[in-house]
Structures are given as structure tokens and as C-alpha cells.
Amino acid sequence: MDMDAQSYAKASELFQREALRLDELGHHEQIPNLYAYFEQDKRQYIIQEYIDGNNLAQELQLYGPFHEAKWCSCSGIWCRFWSLSIVIT
């Protein structure tokens, strides 16, 4: 799928912005550290710390849907992330 120049420029700008936010948040114990991000051949890459464990699909399969307390504990950091996104934007 080829993007026109304007769409690519916007996608690149958004990628850079989100990578910077990830870098800011990477110092939180529940978010992997961001080691690097770059673009090559019109593809965007993020290199983050590997954290051993289950992904969300595996957690849901093992334990079923999250109850409210579990969701709130997991989503709190993302709520702060999106709040930061709104404030910075």
C-alpha cells in the first residue's frame, strides 16, 4: 500500500510524536523502556525492552475478562498516557 506524500508526512509526524511520548513514559515500571525508534524505507520501527510474560490475548484466555478492579489497575497508566497525549498535542 503506497501512501501519497502528504499522508506519509502526517504518519511520520504522528509516529515521531508517539515515540517521544513512549520515551517519556518508559520510566514507569509498567511500561517497557524505549531503546530506539527510527524510519527506514518508509517503515517505522520501535525497539523496546522485552518483558517476559503473557500478552493480553493469553491473559484473557487464561483468566477470562478482567473485572473492574483489575482493569482499573492495568488501564490507569494508559489513561495517564492518553491524558498526556491530549495535553501535549
Give the topology, please.
Elements: H1 5-25, E1 34-40, E2 43-48, H2 56-63, H3 68-88
Antiparallel strand pairs: 1-2
Brief descriptors of the model:
89 residues, alpha+beta, two-stranded antiparallel sheet, elongated, single chain
What's this, in brief?
With 89 residues, this protein is α+β, with helices and mostly antiparallel strands.
How would you describe this structure to a colleague?
- The protein is α+β, with helices and mostly antiparallel strands and 89 residues long.
- It has two domains: 52 residues, no CATH class; 35 residues, no CATH class.
- Helices cover 56% and strands 15% of the residues.
- A two-stranded antiparallel sheet has the order 1-2.
- A hairpin with a 2-residue loop joins strand 1 and strand 2.
- It is elongated and about 45 Å long.
- The two termini are 28 Å apart.
- The C terminus is likely disordered.
Strand content: 5-15%
What's the total count of β strands?
A: 2
- Shape type: elongated
Global mean pLDDT? 77
Question: Ranges with pLDDT <50 over ≥5 residues?
Answer: 81-89
The order of strands across the largest sheet is: 1-2
Class from secondary-structure proportions: alpha+beta
**Biggest β-sheet description:** 2 strands, antiparallel
How many whole angstroms does the radius of gyration measure?
16 Å
Give the number of helices: 3
Share of helix among residues?
55-70%
Give helix and strand order, one letter per element, not per position: HEEHH
N- and C-termini, Cα separation: 28 Å
Supply the number of structural domains: 2
